[in-house]
Design a protein that fits this description.
Blueprint: H1 4-22, E1 35-40, E2 42-45, E3 52-57, E4 60-65, H2 69-74, E5 87-94, E6 101-109, E7 112-115
Parallel strand pairs: 4-6
Antiparallel strand pairs: 1-5, 2-3, 3-4, 5-6, 6-7
């Protein structure tokens, strides 16, 4: 029985760093550069670990990182409000490495502003 614990611990030590690398940390976004942009959303994904979408910004297609579904729902944001083609105002931060991706702090849709963080 005592041999199982070290094996389980070793497996966890190998798996957890890979999971952490697969997800972006909030330190990879520049909170000193606020983006505020109004445009229709495309490719909306209503899922976890967080929702996402795409939007045209500065001549490029940007990835939009939203909040987890439960948080969005608890704050009054529904899947229908974020339907593809829906015009929204996004406020958030760009990635520090220059990738076309923004982390959204708040979203305004149909006159309603929802804080995501």
């Amino acid at each position: 029985m005592f041999r199982i614990v070290p094996v389980a611990a070793a497996c966890a030590a190998l798996v957890l760093p890979a999971a952490a690398l697969a997800h972006h940390g909030w330190s990879s976004y520049d909170s000193g550069k606020i983006i505020k942009h109004t445009a229709p959303l495309t490719n909306v994904v209503w899922g976890n670990p967080h929702g996402s979408a795409k939007v045209s910004y500065q001549g490029k297609t940007w990835d939009v990182i939203l909040a987890p579904v439960l948080r969005m729902q608890n704050r009054g944001l529904t899947r229908e409000m974020l339907a593809p083609g829906k015009r929204v105002t996004l406020e958030g931060y760009p990635r520090t490495d220059g990738a076309a991706e923004m982390r959204i702090e708040r979203i305004t849709v149909d006159g309603k502003t929802v804080e995501l963080r």
